Amino acid sequence: MDKTYNPFTTAQEQFDKVAEMLNLDQAMKKMLRNSMREYHFLIPVRMDDGSVEVFRGFRVLHNDARGPGKGGIRFHPQETIDTVRALAMWMTWKCAVVDIPLGGGKGGVICDPHNLSSREQELLCRGWVRQISKNVGPLSDVPAPDVMTNAQHMLWMLDEYETIHGAKYPGFITGKPVGMGGSLGRKEATGYGVIFTVREALKEMGVRPEDTIASVQGFGNVARHAIELYQQIGGGVIAVSCWDQKDNTSYTFRKTDGVSLDELLTITDSFGSIDKNKASDLGYTVLDGSAWIEQEADILIPAALENQINAETVSKMSQRVKLIAEGANGPTTIEADETIKKRNIFLIPDFLANAGGVTCSYFEQVQCNMNYYWTKEETLGKLDEKMTSAFIAVSDLAREKKLYMRDAAYVIAIDRVAKAARYRGWV
Ligand code: NAD
Question: For domain 37-182, which CATH number applies: 3.40.50.10860, 1.10.10.10, 3.20.20.140, 3.40.630.30?
């Protein structure tokens, strides 16, 4: 990863541009371009070999004018406070653009779960909650899974929170296992949400999904469900890329007649890394990690990490690309965004494209509050409605005001949050 790239600077620059367009006053700008609350803490964990490792954890609440903070917890060796700040800010805009009554938060721990046993991961999750339990909660700030955290991690965290507070609080955290307060459809929600917006964008462009080919970066939760639904609606996927923990680098796996999700899943570990030797045996061409962006594809779906479409990689993008759906948070730098805009590529910005996850998390909270659970079809149907109407509102505004899609999404989201802060009398 580029050490000089700072996602928070990107998030603030994106905000500043739209704040000018919306004519926000100085106080409002100052409030919305910064986090309202930030917590940094240490988490000591007794490791399996008897030694104690001390991990650094974070929780950032960017803004809660529209409702309790909402946002995942990421376990990553390169986690930084600025990454968490940026992701928390993007969560505020994400909840606002799909119009759910939540604010933006994010958490993280600097660690590599690949190198931690299950017991060590459990202690880390419980330790994270012990450090922050007074400052998060169902009515203040609600965590969820993110990169390298999953339903099991969420349940350990819930159990610790409920033990500390002496009662059941299923709304404390989302992304829980189904049957333990989790919502059916949550697993699929982000990836499917990306494709609901891709489907709508293609409709607008007058292109049939069956006539398109996509290249995908990442092979984790978001990417594989995006691939699943995209293939169901007729699209073909030429390549996927993922991180290889053993080689400490990324690879792209290409099959010109289309990658098979089921086949690749049989050779993928629990962190979304595909075994390159087995992939080779199955007829995949194994290429450099950045090759996903160079493929002859109509659609690019970055669904791994931030800063992946940057000044260097964007120049390698095929002329065939006509649509980019940002499954990951912050995958595109400001410079690359300019190129995408100039090339007239239809962009579905991250906080709209990947809002399916938080929308379903909101549905999970609603179900927990009722203690009554919907079927998967019902949940995904409601998700489709929310994503489709959010997409249409953004693309209508973009067309009407001749705005770039990212700017149109920001205008809607920032305006909603600024209004909420004003109604509350904060600014
Ligand atoms: P995940 O941990 O399940 O998968 C991440 C994938 O990215 C893995 O396949 C990993 O191998 C791959 N990867 C990591 N570094 C890479 C690199 N340098 N090059 C290529 N591949 C690389 O994570 P996820 O939940 O699928 O999240 C992916 C992105 O989507 C993140 O930006 C996350 O913040 C965002 N997101 C996730 C959700 C969700 O519900 N899971 C919701 C909204 C946004």
Answer: 3.40.50.10860
Question: How far apart are alpha carbons 387 and 356 in whole angstroms?
Answer: 7
| 406 Cβ contact list (under 8 Å, min separation 6) | 14, 337, 347, 349
Domain range annotation of the chain: 37-182, 187-353
- Angstrom distance (rounded) from CA 282 to CA 276: 10
| Same topology between domain 37-182 and domain 187-353 | yes
User: Do the beta carbons of residue 354 and residue 327 sit within 8 Å?
Assistant: yes
* 132-151 per-position pLDDT tens digit: 999 999 999 999 999 899 99
Task: Choose, from 106, 187, 255, 386, the residue flagged as catalytic.
Answer: 106
291 Cα–ligand 1 center, Å: 17
pLDDT tens digits, residue range 311-320?
A: 999 999 999 9
Predicted TM-score of the model (pTM) = 0.94
Residue 59's contacts (CB-CB under 8 Å, 6 or more residues apart) are 38, 39, 84, 105, 106, 107, 132, 135, 136, 141, 143
Nearest protein CA to atom 20 of ligand 1, as residue = 242
End-to-end distance of the chain based on CA atoms, in angstroms?
38
Give yes or no: 70 in active site: no
Q: Which CATH number fits domain 187-353: 3.30.420.10, 3.90.1200.10, 3.40.50.300, 3.40.50.720?
A: 3.40.50.720
Round to whole Å and give the CA distance between 111 and 392. Answer: 39
| The pLDDT of residue 3 is above 60 | no
pLDDT tens readout for residues 387-407: 999 999 999 999 999 999 999
Q: How far is the CA of 317 from the centre of ligand 1 (A)?
A: 21
The minimum-distance atom of ligand 1 relative to the CA of 357 is 40
Shortest-distance Cα residue to atom 27 of ligand 1 = 147
Residue bearing tokens 């962190």 = 271
Answer whether 105's CB lies under 8 Å from 143's CB.
Answer: yes
